[in-house]
Amino acid sequence: MPYGWRVTKTSAERAEPTADSRLRPAGRATRAAIEAAAKALFAERGFEGASVRGIAAEAGVDPALVIRHFGSKEALFLRTIDTSLGIGAVIDGPVETLGRRLVAYFLEGGNTAMRRRFVAIAQASHLQQVRDEMVRHTAEAYIAPLAPRLDGEDREVRVALVVAQIAGLLNLLFLQEDPVLSAASPATLVALYGDAIQSLVTP
Amino acid sequence: MPYGWRVTKTSAERAEPTADSRLRPAGRATRAAIEAAAKALFAERGFEGASVRGIAAEAGVDPALVIRHFGSKEALFLRTIDTSLGIGAVIDGPVETLGRRLVAYFLEGGNTAMRRRFVAIAQASHLQQVRDEMVRHTAEAYIAPLAPRLDGEDREVRVALVVAQIAGLLNLLFLQEDPVLSAASPATLVALYGDAIQSLVTP
DNA sequence: CGACTTGAGTCAACGCTGTTGACACCCTCG
DNA sequence: CGAGGGTGTCAACAGCGTTGACTCAAGTCG
Question: Which of B110, B111, B52 has its CA nearest to residue B80?
């Protein structure tokens, strides 16, 4: 976003000196309260469903103060929602069994917290900054650690395609709540989809 | 759409007797104008970006008239956006080469119209009815025609997983505009991802 | 042919949203 | 002690989707 040419500062720029540098105790406390309320409400109702006024009320704070502290609802969302889904441990394991372990990871851990985070992020995908964050996360959490460990050609593309497979699975499972996939046993999904993913990891 | 069981009528139902049955010429014309304007603006700006007032202005009509005719912005979106992406011909072809043909289809045809429709639908996925429509489309356009033609076990689940793979590919390619996948050659994507899909069709 | 029903269209308004600017407070530092 | 700036409050803005009351004309029927 071309902010540079502007002379007057927007509230978004005024808001965060360095996120915590020159901050008084009172400010730090209300910031934390707002962040906690936002995390809860975004997870519960999604980006559109959670309003700035609702978050402010939950935190016991004036709505204007939310914007004052975080600049915008979008910025608050980005700071609040944790895009890293703790995938590190799975990625670090042996690549020969990565496919099934990936699917198993998302099926097991994803029944509550991760499911809600995924839905919230997916539903906020009309925001450019959210999409950028997804791309960054793909590059940082998947391509960077995994591509160097693969054999053969097109390693980065193949990892990106693995991410696409995972994104698609979570989409049908968590967002659309597809009845066929929801009714299938986790073991079946792990075996079938895990092997499909594996065919890109070790062709 | 299961409208019948409800007793009280919402404005959405009041609006459309049977979509065109008892309609005067004038009404039919403005309805068409609204639909055309909506189709253009939804595709151009997405669900959130296109406003009812904007659509009304584009159609040269009062904003209230848009709601009067279609019941709600959401209903207008559902009637306007064509979820069937003309996949029929690809599905009907030989299953032995389905994977690569599917990927090729979405890579070729998807540069303009389909790309915009996918983005618009994805960005409206916070609406329950839009998600329901996606599920219905999966069942109708993929599972129903394809599952009976497969061999082996878990045919419906395997088709659903194919849909997940496609959804994930389109997500990274069209919505997130992932730089790695965008830079890859279509031929590479067709070969790699097509075979990954094929591994679910004919294991 | 006139009366009545009913669809088409207009207008102002409601309640909601995210965001802003002016203002007062009070802590901290020089 | 005075100045500066982080902190909080308030009312208001423009935009959103949607509603209800209203007028007008077209179509139906006794």
Answer: B52
CB B202 within 8 A of CB B151: yes
Specify the pLDDT at position A3. 29
- pLDDT above 90 for B6: no
Cβ within 8 Å of residue B179, ≥6 positions away: A135
- Collect all residues of chain B within an 8 Å Cβ-Cβ radius of residue A178: 135, 138, 160, 163
pTM: 0.88
Nearest CA in chain B to A184: B157
Check if residue B23 sits with its Cβ under 7 angstroms from strand C. Answer: yes
Whole-angstrom Cα Rg for chain A: 20
Q: Per-block average pLDDT, block size 10, for chain A (203 residues)?
A: 33 43 76 96 95 97 96 96 78 97 88 87 93 95 97 98 98 97 98 98 96
Query: How big, in percent rounded to 5, are the helix, strand and coil portions of chain B?
Result: 75, 0, 25
pLDDT at A113: 82
**Amino acid identity, position A198:** Q
d(CA A154, CA B47): 36
Q: Which of A57, A124, A181, A156 is nearest to B184 (CA)?
A: A156
How far is A192 from A178, CA to CA, in rounded Å?
Answer: 17
Q: Which residue in chain B is spatially nearest to A133 when comparing CA positions?
A: B176
Q: How far is the CA of A76 from the C1' of C18 (A)?
A: 12
Residue B176's nearest CA partner among A169, A163, A107 is: A163
| Orientation of helix A113-123 relative to helix A98-109, angle to 10° | 90
The one-letter amino acid at A109: G
